[in-house]
């Protein structure tokens, strides 16, 4: 067997950091985490995350507590990437160390990070909360001393809008791995988080998870349920309930927590809420539209289905997509037309022009989708470009449908592309999976004047497909207008109301001046009938309990700016978002929370950075990291969690990154004629201040990578067998600086390139003197 090349895999004494091993051709890449069995190494610092949720009427107040503990021997800086609701307005953070509590302050992003770094250098404990995406946050907790336990608490609020009488609260638990083809060396600071460690498929989180919800509906609750986790529900009267996770869900933080409830009689908490805050007054208007009506005539439509078949969709998500698309395409009418675009690393289209929905064409499309297995990258933008550029027929209304988990990092570019190219069509998005990228799914739907759908298990696919058909065929309310009359409203969000496709309230945030008086009138067309509804402003009671309206208005304004503009290129919008964050004390892409302890706790300012590994979302396979990741090692000699990437030669002098640890994948890539090769290292000569034991440990660690290079050469035109003598140089820091083939019977440029690329990614504990060390070794069949 090929595994006889070297001894069994062992951890080498030091590993190369992602920065050191990544060349200019490296892309931002999530990677697998492999935890060492060495008990002397630092333990993973995040111990628990919990959420206390209080829902009053239509507003949810959430307090999230993250507990970090250093059980190792060195001061740590913990880095944790975690998700949030796309509707969350994060307005507060505090840090607790022992009996000391430090309230965080909001600041411009760059200034907050500088303050945080300065605190670490001065030996002070500190925490920093940054927004990397509207639904992806990064927490840094620095100067976590051995034995320390630090709690960080963040507070946010969000609005709950019912649909067809059902309220839904979602607490996201884990950020799925994001595909990116962006070179690592050119990546912006707020994209670096994409390169994060992940546990393998099915491996439980290393931290505990807890969520408790207190529901005060104001009117009797008809029913409450949690579709994602096992919970215990206790009713505290007809209009209140407490929902707690069951003890069996202690490590259930690998999928979104989804709570749904319905009020008695299908009631909706519609009406007007107001709040007076110093020099500004805020309101929230929720007006229930009419019930859906059956149309007298449904016009012919054209449907473009865009289906993600990338590696992260492998397994459960892709099977749901197949079920969904079979249902959607299988129920098209003969007068409809359709097309299918599949995408992963590249994209393909079923036909250059949309086809009639005949039985033959429908079966052809279903067969094409059923044949997909999921693999490769997630090149969303080229697929969108191709789909939106397809020629369209005259006289038909176009609807674009995309099914994806959204594990990409090009959200803003996708929103802009949809707005520029979509024209008069609608974009409907289906997020498939247990922890999808809701920011992308919801943002694309908003940009395309459509609706988002989230499907977390196969049983939901048929119901969501039917809901989609109702949306596109029978809108609830069109030509919608609001007349505020004597109520002096301004700064409305949204400024205009699109067609109402779902049975959900018309929702408008805003500010007002003067007296709260007059009548607000909603008008539109339902079916073929005119529709009006009125709200008397004087019936609304302003209350300090509605203080969340201030945050919610600002958050909605920020969300619109973030979705619909390429903010990084527009200084005016950057400034507007920044000022909104500072004025309303909100976390944004350009404002961060920082908390610094005034007590100096250590003197040298040195900490070990540890990136907290995340679980793969439930149902997501290891293929989600296919082609992108390497192996992370928690190293005793090289501080923190580091990464080394496994490469496979493509045979043309370039290299592809493997999707699993080398020992697993190189066997799959081995040619049949080489299966019985046994390769041995005959001699190792070390000159300089390097330990021979450390060199031997490196060979044990990286033998499979070298074997892959050798096997690739056997396939090449040079072919042949024979010994090789290789020499490499190690500098005082333990980095490999030069590699050369001294002699050998097997001469192959690809082999030389492959070995050079691999060995320059090795790392050693460091030479014992300030000089270099030279290693010469021979291996042969």
| Mean pLDDT value | 78
CATH topology value of the largest domain: Immunoglobulin-like
Q: What would you call the quaternary organization?
A: single chain
Low-confidence stretches: 1-24, 627-678
- Global morphology: globular
Number of domains: 4
Helix content: 10-25%
Tell me the number of helical segments per DSSP (H or I, 4 or more residues long). 13
Query: How far is it from the N-terminal to the C-terminal residue, by CA?
Result: 12 Å
Strands, count:
41
Portion of residues in beta strands equals: 25-35%
Rg, rounded, reads: 29 Å
The CATH superfamily of the largest domain turns out to be tricorn interacting facor f3 domain
Could you please describe the fold and organization of this structure?
The chain has 781 residues and is α+β, with helices and mostly antiparallel strands. The chain has 4 domains: 2-22 and 645-780, no CATH class; 31-266 and 586-609, Immunoglobulin-like, CATH 2.60.40.1730; 271-293 and 477-565, Immunoglobulin-like (Sandwich); 301-473, Rossmann fold, CATH 3.40.50. The protein contains 13 helices and 41 strands. Strand 25 (426-432), helix 7 and strand 26 form a beta-alpha-beta unit. Helix 3 (316-330) runs antiparallel to helix 4, helix 5 runs parallel beside helix 6 and helix 12 (692-715) packs antiparallel against helix 13 (749-759). The longest helix has 24 residues, at 692-715. Residues 1-24 and 627-678 have low confidence and may be disordered.
């Amino acid at each position: 067997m090929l595994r006889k090349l070297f001894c069994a895999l062992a951890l080498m004494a030091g590993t190369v950091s992602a920065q050191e091993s990544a060349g200019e051709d490296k892309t931002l890449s999530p990677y697998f985490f492999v935890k060492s069995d060495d008990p002397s190494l630092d333990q993973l610092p995040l111990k628990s995350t919990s959420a206390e949720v209080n829902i009053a009427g239509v507003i949810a107040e959430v307090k999230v507590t993250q507990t970090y503990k250093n059980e190792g021997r060195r001061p740590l800086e913990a880095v944790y990437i975690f998700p949030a609701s796309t509707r969350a307005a994060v307005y507060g953070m505090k840090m607790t160390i022992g009996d000391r509590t430090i309230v965080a302050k909001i600041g411009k992003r760059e200034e907050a990070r500088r303050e945080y770094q300065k605190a670490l250098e001065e030996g002070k404990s500190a925490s920093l909360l940054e927004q990397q995406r509207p639904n992806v946050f990064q927490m840094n907790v620095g100067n976590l001393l051995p034995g320390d336990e630090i709690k960080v608490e963040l507070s946010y609020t969000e609005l709950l809008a019912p649909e067809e009488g059902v309220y839904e609260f979602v607490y996201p638990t884990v950020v799925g791995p994001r595909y990116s083809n962006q070179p690592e060396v050119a990546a912006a600071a707020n994209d670096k988080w994409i390169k994060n460690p992940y546990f393998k498929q099915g491996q439980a989180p290393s931290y505990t998870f807890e969520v408790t919800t207190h529901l005060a509906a104001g009117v009797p609750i008809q029913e409450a349920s949690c579709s994602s986790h096992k919970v215990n529900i206790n009713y505290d009267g007809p209009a209140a309930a407490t929902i707690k996770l069951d003890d069996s869900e202690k490590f259930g933080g690998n999928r979104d927590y989804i709570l749904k409830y319905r009020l008695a009689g299908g009631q909706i908490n519609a009406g007007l809420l107001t709040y007076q805050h110093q020099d500004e007054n805020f309101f929230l208007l929720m007006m229930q539209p009419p019930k859906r009506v059956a149309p007298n005539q449904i016009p012919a439509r054209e449907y473009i289905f865009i289906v993600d078949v990338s590696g992260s969709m492998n397994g459960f998500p892709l099977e749901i997509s197949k079920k969904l698309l079979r249902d959607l395409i299988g129920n098209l009418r003969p007068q409809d037309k359709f097309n299918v675009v599949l995408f992963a690393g590249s994209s393909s289209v079923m036909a250059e022009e949309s086809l009639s929905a005949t039985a033959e064409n429908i079966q052809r499309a279903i067969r094409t989708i059923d044949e997909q297995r999921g693999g490769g990258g997630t090149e969303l933008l080229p697929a969108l470009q191709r789909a939106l550029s397809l020629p369209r027929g005259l006289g038909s209304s176009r609807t674009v449908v995309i099914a994806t988990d959204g594990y990409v990092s090009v959200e803003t570019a996708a929103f802009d592309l949809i707005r520029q190219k979509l024209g008069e069509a609608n974009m409907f998005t289906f997020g498939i999976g247990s922890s999808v990228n809701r920011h992308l799914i919801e943002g694309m739907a908003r940009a395309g004047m459509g609706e988002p759908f989230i499907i977390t298990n196969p049983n939901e696919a048929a119901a969501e497909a039917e809901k989609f058909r109702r949306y596109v065929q029978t809108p609830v309310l069109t030509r919608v207008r609001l007349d505020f009359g004597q109520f002096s409203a301004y700064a409305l969000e949204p400024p205009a109301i699109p067609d109402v496709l779902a049975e959900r309230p018309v929702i408008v945030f805003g500010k007002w001046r003067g007296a709260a008086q007059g009548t607000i009138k909603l008008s539109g067309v339902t079916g073929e009938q005119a529709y009006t509804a009125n709200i008397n402003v004087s019936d609304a009671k302003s209350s300090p309990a509605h203080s969340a309206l201030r945050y919610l208005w600002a958050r909605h304004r920020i969300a619109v700016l973030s979705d619909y503009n390429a903010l990084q290129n527009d200084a005016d919008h950057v400034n507007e978002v920044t000022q909104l964050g500072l004025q309303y004390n909100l976390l944004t892409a350009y404002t961060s929370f920082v908390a610094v302890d005034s007590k100096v706790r250590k003197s040298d300012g040195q900490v070990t950075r540890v990136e907290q590994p995340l679980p793969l979302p439930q149902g997501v396979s290891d293929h989600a990291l296919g082609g992108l990741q390497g192996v992370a090692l928690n190293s005793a000699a090289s501080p923190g969690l580091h990464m080394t990437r496994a490469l496979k030669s493509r045979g043309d002098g370039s290299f592809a990154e493997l999707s699993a640890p080398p020992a697993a994948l190189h066997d799959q890539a081995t040619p049949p004629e080489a299966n019985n090769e046994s390769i041995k290292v005959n001699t190792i000569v070390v000159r300089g201040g390097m330990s021979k034991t450390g060199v031997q440990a490196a060979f044990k660690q990286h033998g499979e990578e070298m074997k892959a290079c050798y096997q690739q050469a056997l396939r090449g035109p040079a072919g042949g067998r024979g010994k090789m003598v290789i020499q490499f140089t190690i500098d005082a820091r333990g980095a490999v600086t030069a590699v050369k083939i001294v002699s050998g019977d097997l001469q192959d440029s690809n082999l030389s390139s492959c070995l050079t690329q691999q060995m320059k990614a090795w790392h050693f504990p460091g030479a014992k003197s300030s000089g270099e060390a030279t290693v010469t070794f021979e291996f042969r069949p």
